[in-house]
Amino acid sequence: MENFSQWYHNILEEASIIDSRYPIKGMSVWLPKGFKLRKHIIEPLKKLLDKDHEEVLFPLLVPEDELAKEGIHVKGFEDEVYWVTHGGQKELNKKLAIRPTSETAMYPMFSLWVRSHIDLPMKFYQVVNTFRYETKHTRPLIRVREITTFKEAHTVHATKEGADEQVKEAIKIYKEFFDTLAIPYLLSKRPIWDKFPGADYTMAFDTLMPDGKTLQIGTVHNLGQTFAKTFDITYETAESTHDYVYQTCYGLSDRVIASVIGIHGDEKGLRLPPQIAPNQVTIIPIIFKKGGEEVLNKCEEIKSSLESSNIRTSMDNRDIRPGKKFYEWELNGSPIRIELGPRDLENNKAVIVRRDNLEKIEIDLESDYVSKIEEIFQEISENMKNQVWEKMNDSIISTESLNNVNELIKDEKVVSFTWCGDEECGKVIEEITEIDILGTQSEDSDYCKDIDGSKCVHCGKEGKYTALMAKTY
Amino acid sequence: MENFSQWYHNILEEASIIDSRYPIKGMSVWLPKGFKLRKHIIEPLKKLLDKDHEEVLFPLLVPEDELAKEGIHVKGFEDEVYWVTHGGQKELNKKLAIRPTSETAMYPMFSLWVRSHIDLPMKFYQVVNTFRYETKHTRPLIRVREITTFKEAHTVHATKEGADEQVKEAIKIYKEFFDTLAIPYLLSKRPIWDKFPGADYTMAFDTLMPDGKTLQIGTVHNLGQTFAKTFDITYETAESTHDYVYQTCYGLSDRVIASVIGIHGDEKGLRLPPQIAPNQVTIIPIIFKKGGEEVLNKCEEIKSSLESSNIRTSMDNRDIRPGKKFYEWELNGSPIRIELGPRDLENNKAVIVRRDNLEKIEIDLESDYVSKIEEIFQEISENMKNQVWEKMNDSIISTESLNNVNELIKDEKVVSFTWCGDEECGKVIEEITEIDILGTQSEDSDYCKDIDGSKCVHCGKEGKYTALMAKTY
User: Fold this and answer.
1) Which candidate, B55, B37, B56, places its Cα nearest to that of B46?
2) Which residue of A has its CA nearest to B79?
């Protein structure tokens, strides 16, 4: 996309997603249409988590001493935390942090809740706002000071294996969620200098935005026993001994919504996969002076049929030109538009226009058109998914030398390379290329090269990993 | 109730609603069960509002200068606002308030959004957390520092009549909502010294808690043009002139949830109206060694039938004594329990136990028992509603003299009296009785006496209003 940044800014405004004129930098208002989109994106995630997680809600504020307990963790956030120092006119005895994330709010309570091995595992999640005092240039939904849609899950396990298994399980849940959104992803193990502060290791999902930069859209952290030791979360084992628990946490944010908007959108506006579109079908009656009422009635009838099959349907019978309606609904990303005029009615037909590829399909209104539309939903989802995955996969290129990396990256590429895995060497690679290492690939990754005999691109030592690098948001 | 305060504290803990051991006073954690109850209480309200309001989401933080703009308003909140003064290690150039309510966050944006009379009316709502630095004794869900469930609606109108009409409409919506919860209410126009800071007038819903104190559970404010003038919210009229808009706002909080818990609960625990109960039906198989599987199968079958009619059903097949299960589900307030043992199965019967009155009803499993259960839901709702309304109405007593007010109030009463309506006189009445005037009754109120010829209880001047007074939370 020629000027993604400008396009992105415009679409948020034109499709009435958010209003970023709020008088604090990096904080925006969710407008009604944006709020609905947000809701329909959160819903399938909640459904996935509700299977075996419990939803809770923790306070926004964290006492200074709790936040400070886990040294490595607080160091990772100390430049970004907003501090509440006054209540009314009075200075507080103890400063309160606005949560940048909720480990330090939750884990003192976990310490009270966890008693015995039979309580475990525990799996919780919450959807809340969190805050980071960003000093870099902010960008709506991508780099913000109020993250309005932070979905964070926290789990507690009796064994290391339990936590390891949960990391896999969380990855599976996120993959399923991203598939619902038709968002392609790269899964990496973050380099040690880029893991979550306090975690043993971090698995991260990145997607590729149209400007060639990758966007982190989800992370899964294996916390080991670090926080358990800090917050004294112990349990009684079956043998009546006491041990520290093992923990994981995993999160997603507004960035997921940014990726849906950015990756699927085109010059006409949003394109939304049917499962998350607030309006799945939009019916537009084409009305002339004569026979207008019959057309409207038929449109109402179609609307009722679709709604009784739980298809979210709007009918746009405003008194404006159909062309203006087409324009608006394409902008809003409604996956299917149905047009029905007097001649269509005579023939008992209607015209479906797919938003994903603008294809027109005639449907017979005497047939089971509801099932037909459900089929088309499937096709749209598949088509959108294939398109974006293909595009991303085409953008991954392998290199054996650092010399041409900046040239490769210019063409909106993610670069895969062999790495020895040493921290020192990795940091040098990032420094000389000024490009970030996303992380290392596991052997079952699509992006993992056969590294037998390959040498590290920088030091020439024996290659240990296939790693990915990219310009990042 | 003998010791309501103790009972309330216990039930929150025993029914796992919230955990108030969070290390900041007045801020609590919603536990999974409590979170579900909260969700099912919010849902019917959202449904009512979604008919013609749009859901939005505004930032949590408000710049100091916006908060300070409306002088009367800020004065009402200045002792209660939490202030964010630092981002990371740096002091912020401009202090940020954590919203105590969102007028000053929203109205600068409304000023950008409202252009022409054709944009009006606009009706928005959001469900968010808000903060008050309470210095009084806090009490979970009732007097808190983080209000976690603040539903605030804000509307904008072209005319005074539009705003007046919306106040009536909001009252209608809240009445319908409270009816769904089977919560009785007193509707009053708050005395002028107790209205929302910045409003023309405030209509308030109070309910009577078991300890005889009233609890404000909802307010509707007619803001007139005060905020419009402060935040410069104008529109172009049909005649191309410009005028300030008229506004209303109305809100509810966690206190609604407190009232459901407090008013319906009994010595066995929660009692929940079916419409908002997370578990509407709980099936408890009574299993002996022989025939256990058949009983379980039948229970599963009943569960499926109920769920296919969208009845939220749990089956408790834990390996513990039935008595313990009965105890727990009564504590959790599940409206209907179904018990099924081998002998019941033989006779193709089951026993229903109603939580509201503990009545046992035998049902024939060959009949349309799903409809029967839906009927019982209706009866439970009606019964609960009648019970609590009757109790509240029996607690309202009329007096013609202030002398015996404190005596009357001791017996858990709300006192109705004739008042001249003068502010000075009203404040004296509050001072000498140490009891709050809730407000005045409109003529169509159930609690409005015929005041023809009645004299003000304090000054003896001609009576103008029937007013209510009570000890309040």
Assistant:
1) B55
2) A88
B242 with B368, same domain: the answer is no
Q: Do A57 and B35 touch (CB under 8 A)?
A: yes
Q: How many CB pairs under 8 A join A and B?
A: 142
Give the three-class secondary structure for A279.
coil
* Co-location of A67 and A152 in the same domain: yes
Domain at A326, CATH number: 3.40.50.800
Q: Are residues B294 and B163 in the same domain?
A: no
Cα gap B102→B73, rounded to integer Å: 11
Question: Does the residue B355 lie in any domain?
Answer: yes
Q: Which of A18, A28, A57, A119 to mutate to test binding with chain B, by most B CBs within 10 Å of its CB?
A: A57
A53: nearest CA partner in chain B: B32
The answer to whether the Cβ–Cβ distance between A83 and B86 falls below 8 Å is yes
Query: A147: nearest CA in chain B?
Result: B59
Task: Give CA–CA dist B100/B110, Å, rounded.
Answer: 19
Q: Residue A110's domain spans which residues?
A: 4-264
- Nearest in space to B409 (alpha carbons), one of B459, B346, B472, B457: B472
Is A271 inside any structural domain?
A: no
What residues in A contact B64, CB-CB < 8 Å?
none
Whole-angstrom Cα distance, residue A5 to residue A7? 5
Residue A368, min C-alpha distance to chain B (Å)? 24
Residue-wise pLDDT for A71-102, tens only, equals 888 888 889 999 999 999 999 999 999 999 99
Q: What are phi and psi of A360, to 5 degrees?
A: -105, 135
Between chains, do B57 and A30 touch, taking CB under 8 Å as contact? Answer: yes
Residues 6+ apart with CB under 8 A from B68: B74
Residue of A31, A32, A56 lying closest to B29 (CB–CB): A56
Question: Do residues B244 and B225 lie in contact, with contact meaning Cβ atoms separated by under 8 Å?
Answer: yes
Residue written as token pair 């969208």: B310
**Which of A69, A83, A150 would you mutate first to test chain B, the one with the most B CBs within 10 A?**
A83
Chain B residue numbers with beta carbons less than 8 Å from the beta carbon of A78 are: 88-89
Q: What is the ipTM of this complex?
A: 0.96
Distance from CA of A315 to the nearest CA of B (A): 16
User: Could you list the mean pLDDT of each consecutive 10-residue stretch along chain A, which spans 473 residues?
Assistant: 89 98 97 98 98 98 94 88 96 97 97 97 98 94 98 98 98 98 98 95 97 97 97 97 98 98 97 98 90 91 97 95 95 97 94 97 96 98 98 94 85 92 96 95 90 92 96 94
Write the residue in B28, B59, B85 that is nearest to A83 by C-beta: B85
**Each residue's pLDDT expressed in tens, for chain B with a length of 473 residues:** 669 999 999 999 999 999 999 999 999 999 999 999 999 999 999 999 999 999 999 999 999 999 999 888 888 888 999 999 999 999 999 999 999 999 999 999 999 999 999 999 999 999 999 999 998 999 999 999 999 999 999 999 999 999 999 999 999 999 999 999 999 999 999 999 999 999 999 999 999 999 999 999 999 999 999 999 999 999 999 999 999 999 999 999 999 999 999 999 999 999 999 999 999 999 999 988 777 899 999 999 999 999 999 999 999 999 999 999 999 999 999 999 999 999 999 999 999 999 999 999 999 999 999 999 999 999 999 999 999 999 999 999 999 988 888 888 887 889 999 999 999 999 999 999 999 999 999 988 989 988 888 999 999 999 999 999 999 99
Q: What strands, in cross-sheet order, belong to the sheet with B313-315?
A: B313-315, B281-285, B336-340, B349-354, B360-364
Residues of B in contact with A28 (CB under 8 A): 59
Q: Which residues of B fall within a CB distance of 8 Å from A16? A: none
Contacts of A114 in chain B (CB under 8 A): none
CA angle B330, B334, B339 (to 5 degrees): 75
Nearest-CA distance B18 → chain A (Å): 9
Q: Hunting for tokens 């990032």 — which residue is that?
A: A430
Are residues A233 and A324 both part of a single domain?
no
Contact A133/B96, CB-based, under 8 Å?
no
How many domains would you assign to chain B?
3
